[in-house]
Amino acid sequence: MTSLSFVQESTLFDFFTDLHRHPETAKEEFRTTEKVRSLLSAHGVRLLDTGLPTGLIAQIGGHRPGPVLALRCDMDALPVAEDSGVPYASEEKGKMHACGHDFHTTAVLGAALLLKEREDALHGTVKVLFQPGEEINYGAEVFLATGLLEDVREYYAIHTCPELENGTLGIRPGPVMAAPDRFSVTLRGRGAHGAQPQNALDPMPAMAALIVGMQTVVSRRMNPFAPAVVSVTHAEAGRTWNVIPDTAFLEGTVRTMTPADRDLAEESLRQMVLHTAASYGCEADFRYLRQSAPLINDEALARFAAETARGLGFAVRPQDDTMIGEDFAIYLERRPGCFIRVGTGGGWPLHHPKFHVDPAALLPTARYLAVLIEKRLSSLSAPEGKG
Ligand SMILES: [Zn+2]
Ligand SMILES: [Zn+2]
User: Fold this and answer.
1) How far is the CA of 233 from the centre of ligand 2 (A)?
2) Which of the residues 244, 302, 310, 377 could staple to 297 if both were Cys, CB 3.0 to 4.6 A apart?
3) Distance 99 CA to ligand 1 centre (A)
């Protein structure tokens, strides 16, 4: 089977619908990994030894000198019960490709096989990353930890976009996705009879003050032109009506778009939690967990990706900001790159049970990614592209 026989609308559609019927959640992408592995192997694509149970890194090119670029997709599904109504809906109970990672895997696989056809002409090498565990902030870290990506100069990735139709790409330089950080607060006071507050150090009013007060970190500490979100999403204290509890707990998420805003939000929340707790006579344990960084597209690479897309007849729109996080940002903390939103229509938002994509976008996306990588390798290897 030649690569070109796979990279056709009907075969890409079959591959995609099979992945969609059999979604696998983070770190369990065994079947998906095997499917991708067998197709790449059948086409003679070299696979690197990641030592990981799921996910694959393929390597194409290197016949001519040039830099190493990376093209990354993610493969994991979500614990969501599908209600999309598509004829190839999930057959795995309570699991669904509700973020379109089945689309990413199929389109990037198509691009990899097109690049394999062109291997002799590539001015350098492309490492194609079939990444596990994006939804749990796992895959990028473990892929980087393999040491197989030390020589990568630039990173490229795609994501489905329900707000754009097939034929339109969303590309913009600068910060486009947020750092999806996580925090928790445990307040420790002293419990007592509900009728005897004089014997207590009640953590409840401290918790209530924090739930409301934390919003002022966004409104009073951050620059109003800098997008930021603080959401308290889980609060727990007490068990009954006539006992003041010892402790209270709350947790939530903080979203920021730049490293400086991230530092400011973390420090402002820490101060507020410790001092608010103290003002109610309580102690506070504040934990702030940094997950992936804000996703920041490189200026020149975003321009290159947009020009290449227009050259192939795509409409290009500046992609919308989103306060959702994406672990592709972890690669871009180390090297420049570009995250490209692909118009896949459907209208329903990411992670929604009715989310679905337009499979007609698969083939143009595969072709675009192959052209993008080949052109970028050529331009970096041209005399004016060096340095
Ligand atoms: Zn997602
Ligand atoms: Zn996603």
Assistant:
1) 21
2) 302
3) 5
Residue 60's region, left for phi above 0, alpha for psi from -120 to 50, else beta, is beta
Q: How far is the CA of 57 from the centre of ligand 2 (A)?
A: 19
**Distance between Cα 117 and ligand 1 center (Å):** 31
CA of 106 to the centre of ligand 2 (A): 14
Q: Render pLDDT for 267-305 as a digit per residue (tens, 0 to 9).
A: 999 999 999 999 999 999 999 999 999 999 999 999 999
Q: Which ligand is nearest to the CA of 101?
A: 2
What whole-number distance in Å separates Cα of residue 291 and Cα of residue 134? 12
Domains and CATH numbers, the chain: 3-174+295-385 (3.40.630.10), 179-289 (3.30.70.360)
Pick the ligand that lies closest to the CA of residue 78: 1
Q: Separation of 124 CA from ligand 1 center, angstroms?
A: 32
Global pTM value: 0.91
- CA 367 – ligand 1 centroid, Å: 24
- Tally the C-alpha atoms within 13 A of residue 368's C-alpha that lie toward its C-beta: 31
